[in-house]
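Students often ask why inverse folding is considered easier than folding. One informal answer: many sequences map to the same fold, so there is more than one right answer. In these notes we will look at a single instance of the problem. The structure comes first.
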């Protein structure tokens, strides 16, 4: 980490502010509200992405004409396409800009969720080490969570009375309850039959809802954002890129959902749902109006 600390720290502090105020100390609700605020802040970039998509649709007939004329000469076709993009000041990768901007935020949010003592509660490394040492002595190193800081919060949430033993390090009012709708957002979802159907089934089985919903909403969101005109043509470079992104997004979500704390997955789900409704509004109120004007 390190190089993204300057993003993770303010994000963690803002998440904690939301948790203590408008989210009524509900961690999951805090992440959802946090996500909506982030999406609203990024709205200008989203609009830029829409304009890029609209430009793509505008020049689509010209693209199809080039594809028809140079269908047997792929190199020449790509050259003519690049020339067309330059003439119309269209960047095929422009639609990826919001995603690229969101990645540092997503990584920073991951660190804020994975290291809540450092980034959300603003504890020093010395304080964190003492808390980890206390909990490790109580439950053993093997029983600690994947994230030792989340392990500390989970332990004191289950043993609140012991906070008096570390009152100089962690106060009761600072303790964050990581549960949301019965799901511990500090845990990482696992596809392990021993965990899913064993003694910890009540903990890990509900956690599967996070990756499932994250993948489903990522696919729906990607599908809605794919221009219809591109779906029809289906062979040019930009369409190929869009189709690839539409598949890569859900696959990456599936992969990372089983690697990261469920809180990050909840951020993904909330972000995708916001994007789905946003795109539905654009499709109904902007795209269709433009198509009607063009007839």
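Output (designed amino acids):
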């Amino acid at each position: 980490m390190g190089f993204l600390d300057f993003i993770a720290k303010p994000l963690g502090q803002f998440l904690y502010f939301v948790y203590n105020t408008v989210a009524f100390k509900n961690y999951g609700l805090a992440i959802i509200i946090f996500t909506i605020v982030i999406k609203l802040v990024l709205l200008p970039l989203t609009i830029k992405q829409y304009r890029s998509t609209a430009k793509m649709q505008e020049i689509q007939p010209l693209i199809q004409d080039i594809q028809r004329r140079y269908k047997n000469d792929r190199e020449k076709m790509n050259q003519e396409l690049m020339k067309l993009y330059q003439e119309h000041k269209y960047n095929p990768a422009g639609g990826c800009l919001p995603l690229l901007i969101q990645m540092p935020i997503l990584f920073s949010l991951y660190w804020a969720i994975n290291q809540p003592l450092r980034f959300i509660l603003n504890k020093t490394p010395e304080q964190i080490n003492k808390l980890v040492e206390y909990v490790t002595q109580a439950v053993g190193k093997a029983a600690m969570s994947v994230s030792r800081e989340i392990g500390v919060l989970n332990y004191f949430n289950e043993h609140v009375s012991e906070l008096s033993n570390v009152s100089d390090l962690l106060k009761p009012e600072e303790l964050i309850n990581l549960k949301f709708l019965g799901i511990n957002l500090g845990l990482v979802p696992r596809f392990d039959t021993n965990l899913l159907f064993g003694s910890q089934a009540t903990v890990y089985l509900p956690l599967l809802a996070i990756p499932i919903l994250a993948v489903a909403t990522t696919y729906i969101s990607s599908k809605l954002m794919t221009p219809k005109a591109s779906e029809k043509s289906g062979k040019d470079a930009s369409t190929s890129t869009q189709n690839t992104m539409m598949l890569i997004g859900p696959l990456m979500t599936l992969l990372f959902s089983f690697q990261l704390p469920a809180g990050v997955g909840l951020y993904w789900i909330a972000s995708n749902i916001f994007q789905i409704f946003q795109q539905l509004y654009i499709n109904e109120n902007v795209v269709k109006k433009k198509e009607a004007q063009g007839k």
